[in-house]
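User: Round two. Same drill as before: sequence, then structure, for each protein.

Assistant: Same drill it is. First protein:
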Amino acid sequence: MTQTDTNSPLDIIFVPARTNLPLGTIVLLHGWGSNNQDLGDLVSYFKLPEYQFLFPNGIFDHEYSETGKMWYSFTGAAQLNSGSITQLATSRTVLTDWINSLPDSTGIPLDRTWIAGFSQGGAMTLEIGLDLPVAGLMVLSGYLHSNRPKPTSNIPPVLIVHGTQDDVVPVAAARKSRQVLTEWGIDVTYQEFNMGHSIVPEVLDIVRNFVTKD
């Protein structure tokens, strides 16, 4: 894995494809208090060697961890205050601008780019990805922001995977996300596993099948 400057304020880990002509780009967004290295360590387990991976770090330092990052802060009971909303808006703008720049920096068009995220990263995946003409969105143990407006065009298909034993982001949040996205007319693939707030090998199988459409 290598760090790369993609003309963005984001700190990014880039994992090249094992081929001169990558089939696509996969962007993975980490969760609250984690960092890009945590997800970067999973690359080999995705078993997608013909795809290049990009792992951006959250813009903001985590309040309670020296190494953790976040896309926005939480208050009590995971609610957003005015500062959190401002941080969310900043992350939304920076991530959107960066992803829109990827075709120029990587040579891979957006229609062969997937965005995925775990937990808060999953929420950011929906926050930005529903308005981008990307190949698909993958939400792992994540959620849809309650005030997220309905997208108007270029809506990509969405994969939602969640654990029924998740005590950080309750499975009810995933089910609600599925309901809202389906009502919006979005193509949603939904899968629950008997797991907590985690990523198990079976989840990576579902992700791989979603990307390759096996």
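Second protein:
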Amino acid sequence: MIKIALGIEYDGSVYNGWQSQKHGHGVQEEVEKALSIVADQDVKVICAGRTDTGVHALAQVVHFETTAERSERSWVLGANANLPKNISVHWAKPVREDFHARFSALSRRYQYIILNQFSRPAVLSKKVTWQGLELDVELMSQAAKTLVGEHDFSSYRAVACQANSPVRTIQHLHVTRTGNFICIDIQANAFLQHMVRNIAGVLISIGSGEQPVDWAKQVLEFRDRKLGGVTAAPDGLYFMHVEYPDEFAIPAIAGNGLPI
């Protein structure tokens, strides 16, 4: 068997998340279908991090095993020829037997993009989250600092989250503004279900003046999702990067940057 890793970009607007499912359309389903055509045999892929309904990715990493021998170029071109236009494979490479897209990852990085202007977007609909009320980025940045480090994020995960432990380590959490766009950039060793969107919801409430700066820390200390904030919309959430040990030589960038 040969193990192959791929770097994948996708627009998650019309998908029920990454994972294939009985009552929804997942990105995984389309990727496996395309690769199976190229390999001329059934292919099953494992991803670095599952994304929710409506969430996008510029640097999803997957691996699969196959007996089919194809060049790296053939895997990329063949997969893209059989994928819908909203999914694209950027690179392919053989990897060591001990590589695992999920368990070999050291960290994952997301960006949450907010369009902060009075009128709603049209062209960027589903690509950004729109907030009509003026947001104070300085207050959001102050609140974000209290979440950096290792914490119990029970208040920031979905009620249905099945992770064994709510403890995660946020390595960086930056909030910046460029014109009308606000970017929440977050990197952690791993994420809980809805964790980024719940953090974004709390920071938006603080930025709009609905809650004080120390509310982010208070929510953290509650350790109770029912006492947390509103889960922000999936629109505008991008899976940006996966970090692996250098020994695997996984390409650092899969996409061409955010579409804004």
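The two ends are 41 Å apart (CA to CA).

User: Perfect.
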